[in-house]
Amino acid sequence: MSQEKIARLDSTESQPSRHYAAWIDRLSVEGAFAVLAKARSLEAQGKSIVHLEIGEPDFETPKHIKDAAVRSIMAGDTHYAPSAGLMELRKAVADHVTATRGVPVSAEEVLIAPGTKFIIFLTLMILIEEGDEVILPNPGYSTYESVVKFIGAKPVYINLLEEKDFRFEMEQLEKKITRKTRMIILNSPQNPTGGVLTADDMARIAFLSSHRNITVMSDEIYGRIVYDTPFASYYTSKEIKPHTILVDGFSKAYAMTGWRLGFGIMPKSLVEAALKFTNNTTACTCTFVQKAGIEALIGPQEPVAEMVKEFKVRREVMVKGLNEIPGFKCRMPKGAFYAFANIKETNMTSQVLADFLLEKAGVAALSGTAFGPGGEGYLRFSYANSIPQIEEGLRRIKEVLR
Ligand code: PMP
After folding, report:
1. Does the domain spanning 21-60+303-401 belong to CATH 3.90.1150.10?
2. Where in the chain is the domain with CATH 3.40.640.10?
3. So what's the pLDDT on residue 17?
4. pLDDT of the residue at 4
């Protein structure tokens, strides 16, 4: 590197973005992580914060899963693994998907990665090109839009409707499809609304997309966390397999967010293309984490059921409490662990209210706009926190808004 370039890099300490490639500005940071950082800095200044912002189960990873990881480390599983994942885990995932979705899946159609997020990123990078259109939910999980923009493709919003419990109109979806549409992204149960799509919705989307040869990415990471009706997966017929990517992972169902373990089900040729990507980036997913993943899938499932049972109780407390706050209205979410409250009658914008609650009440929640323009007029509250904490958060909000 030339002396001049080194000098330029050294002088960027105070203006770090100046010498970075322009494309990095096209990626955005997930809102929950930004608010968490702000909340933590307030805590460092001695302020008490109730955390209703972050989307991760507050439960411990079940002990039998942790034990499997420890055993694996002690047995020497501390070296590289194949880039697509350990064959034993790919088989366990294929069996799990075959059993839960009812469509036969082979281990060769499974890709393991350090987190579902990474599967979303790499499959979009492989399938989408500049100028393509990608239909995504609005409001929706911010990573989809961030990556679509990063690629130079165009996000096309499909609006989720509160009066339809945050489902969308199929006619609207049909109208949004153009010659440039390359992908439709679905997420059910949904972040941030807790809405779920029905089996009939899924069948209609499958019909629409397969006739036009559009890939569907179905993000089913909250599939195990449903309360009122059985989970309706998109991945329920053999016919859709050639143009479907199913993404799922261990973070939510097994309280394993920090382990970084996700999987994707996709055509074999896409797994092979994705391999080049993982091989040049992560090389592989941590070997003993994958061993823990096998235990998660084949071991006892009671901890998942217990966690969902507890979330269901918290959901009632959260929604009832939110509906008691003047200016707030909240529908009962059907899945995930988020309540998406309509705050339009407070006459504040979502961001102003979220900042106000954090600073004045010490309650961290997310502005609906962290999930796209369709989130204006809403705040997302995560009930992945204890009932005393949820009650304290609600009490503080009521007090400052009185
Ligand atoms: N999809 C959705 C809809 C999510 O909400 C999240 C996490 N908040 C992810 C994917 C990412 O999960 P992982 O921890 O497996 O990367």
Report:
1. yes
2. 64-298
3. 54
4. 44
Residue 91 CA, ligand 1 centroid: distance in Å: 22
Q: What is the pTM of this model?
A: 0.94
Closest to 334 in 3D by CA, of 225, 220, 199? 225
Q: Which of 2-16, 180-194, 289-303 has the lowest mean pLDDT?
A: 2-16
For the CA of 120, the closest atom of ligand 1 is 10
Task: Give the confidence band of 18 by pLDDT, cuts at 50, 70, 90.
Answer: low
User: Average pLDDT for residues 293-297, to the nearest whole number?
Assistant: 98
Distance 193 CA to ligand 1 centre (A): 14
Q: Which residues line ligand 1 (CB under 6 A)?
A: 55, 115-117, 141, 187, 191, 219, 221, 249, 251, 257, 262
> Using CA positions, which residue lies closest to atom 8 of ligand 1?
55
Which of 112, 116, 257, 282 to mutate for ligand 1's pocket (most ligand atoms within 8 Å of CB)?
A: 116
- Residue ranges, CATH 3.90.1150.10, the chain: 21-60+303-401
Architecture category of domain 64-298 in CATH: 3-Layer(aba) Sandwich (3.40)
Q: What percent of the chain has pLDDT over 70?
A: 96
